[in-house]
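__Protein archive entry__

___
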Amino acid sequence: MQQEADRIVQTLKSKGLRVTPQRFAVYANLLTRADHPTVEQILCDLNQNAPTSSQATVYTSLQTLRDAGLVREVLLDEGVCRYDANIVPHHHFRCKCCGEIEDIAWDQFQGIDLHQLRPGLKVDSYEVTVYGVCDRCDVE
């Protein structure tokens, strides 16, 4: 456990960030999750035992971590921003029934031919979101 805490501190410092208790807590929380939580879900987790963080503090911490390249924003629903500490390029599967989000390895799809786009479009990056029903919900 101490090794994990030391690793988080080193990671934050390696990106030139001050290690505040809130920033540490937000990043540590995201590293343990695969569900791509919202600000509200992270706040609920952090304040489970005693309220110590505000929504603004969590949001600010997430933006700082994002700007440092430690987390990424995932937009799978209109108007809902989720966060992911898995910064390795990957795609997502979203269950239409339960809403669960699952990572899909980048190499699961053949490359998309970006040359097929109309001239003048300059692509920086892309990711695929696949919508369907997960095996937990698909009980016939």
In short: The chain has a mean pLDDT of 90. The longest strand covers residues 72-77. The two ends are 42 Å apart (CA to CA).
